[in-house]
Design brief:
The protein is an alpha/beta fold. The protein is built from 14 helices and 19 strands. The relative contact order is 0.12. Bound molecules: thymidine-5'-diphosphate.
Length: about 400
């Protein structure tokens, strides 16, 4: 029996997606034979409420010198992180010599605003290629995984931190206890940890099972984060839902008793109870809904193949790896995936090996249908693709339900 990574109670999987490759592991044909697979299974801990992967993948297999995810590829995310930086500078930076640390700082999409404001900052980013992009922009970055040991080094060299940031990174880290222990040591008495990740409540409501993949080890709720913070003398002082990455939650955490606790925390906890995020039965029902979603997506794709329609994927997202492999979407159903990220183009999607092509290919000859893998950017994408629809193109979406638009 697997032990919960937070409280060590026994947990069992409520769903298995089967053999799964690395979500961001876009590859060349000469790598097909050596492709790495693991069992993608998810469990719920009824003691501390943490939803988590049963088997985790060695971080070095996911975050390395060829990591394919560059935060700055989305303008919308650029605006989102600018707003975050503005909020931090307005509400949490009290002195000109304040120190801001960010983990998973990627290509510096957020930290650049602190660097430009002349603030003392440090990015911690384990993937060399994206870390290098940040360094080239003049953003102080160390290429490492953050843990308690690194926290002690930073403390000795640079002192305590006013604001500790992490966006879409905390849920990637297997040893969260070491991270929280490190943050506790690093944070000034009135310092704040602000992080955001895809929110379990949204996954359950939207049946967005494609948020589940190797990099997302944990699926957080306010309840499970409150438990984790409490283990380290910290507490959740505020929460703010975010309309990015298909529905995220931003958590504000401080030393116990140091800051006022917003009523939003109790409000969100009450909402979670109503949604049943603390109950095993909720996840049994989620499994059933995920299976139905898969079946209806495959019905549509088989139907389109019978009609000899050309279907292309839109956005070679990490999420698409779960959908294509779990559902069995092969290149005979989806001819290619269009993506604007140069490092993914010319490669093949993990597991099912659908070719990833440049956006120019999509524009040059529109497919009949575009399967919207980047559904979290639907507004931005659909606004840009009026011409695709004018030319008769149709969108196939699967979150929150399967439909053709
Ligand atoms: P992202 O939203 O970060 O999803 P994930 O976390 O699941 O990887 O990735 C979006 C992907 O979609 C990225 O590879 C860039 C691509 N993309 C496009 O090709 N065109 C677009 O207009 C947008 C917004 C994204």
């Amino acid at each position: 029996m697997k032990k919960c990574m937070i409280c060590k109670e026994s947990i069992a999987p409520f769903i298995s997606f089967g053999q799964m490759p690395i979500a961001n592991g876009f590859l060349n044909p000469d790598q097909f034979d050596d492709e790495y697979f693991y069992q993608l299974q998810v469990g719920f801990c009824s003691n501390c409420s943490m939803v988590q992967l049963i088997e985790t993948v060695d971080p070095a297999k996911m975050f390395h010198k060829e990591y394919a995810f560059f935060s700055s590829t989305s303008t919308r995310m650029g605006v989102h992180f600018k707003h975050l930086a503005d909020l931090v500078m307005k509400d949490y930076i009290k002195e000109p010599d304040a120190f801001v640390v960010e983990i998973g700082s990627n290509d510096g999409i957020t930290l650049q605003h602190f660097a430009n404001a002349g603030l003392n900052h440090l990015g911690i980013e384990p993937s060399q290629n994206v870390a290098q992009v940040a360094m080239d922009k003049g953003i102080q970055t160390v290429c490492e995984f953050f843990d308690e040991r690194l926290a002690m080094e930073i403390l000795a060299e640079k002192g305590q931190v006013d604001v500790f940031l992490g966006t879409n990174v905390m849920c990637h880290i297997p040893d969260l206890h070491s991270v929280f222990a490190g943050i506790r040591r690093l944070l000034k008495p009135e310092g704040v940890l602000i992080f955001e990740d895809p929110y379990l409540g949204d996954i359950v409501k939207k049946i967005s099972y494609d948020q589940i993949y190797d990099e997302h080890i944990f699926y957080f709720s306010v309840k499970s984060i409150a438990y984790l913070a409490d283990c380290h003398g910290l507490e959740v002082v505020d929460v703010k839902p975010q309309d990015v990455h298909g529905g995220s939650m931003r958590y504000f955490i401080a030393h116990k008793g140091a800051l006022n606790v917003s009523s939003a925390v109790a409000g969100q906890l009450a909402e979670e109870e109503e949604l049943g995020l603390h109950l095993h039965g909720t996840y049994e029902r989620l499994r059933h809904k995920i299976q139905l979603s898969r079946d209806s997506l495959m019905d549509v794709l088989h139907d389109l193949r019978r009609q000899k329609k050309c279907v292309a994927g839109y956005g070679a997202t990490s999420k698409s790896t779960t959908v294509t492999n779990y559902c069995g979407i092969t290149p005979d159903l989806v001819e290619y995936i269009s993506d604007t990220t140069p490092i993914k183009q010319g490669k093949f999607s993990p597991g099912v090996h659908i070719p990833v092509c440049s956006y120019q290919k999509f524009k040059k000859k529109y497919p009949d249908y575009a399967l919207l893998f980047a559904w979290n950017h639907a507004k931005e994408i659909m606004a840009n693709e009026n011409n695709f629809c004018r030319c008769g193109g149709k969108w196939l979406v699967y979150v929150p339900g399967v439909k053709v638009i």
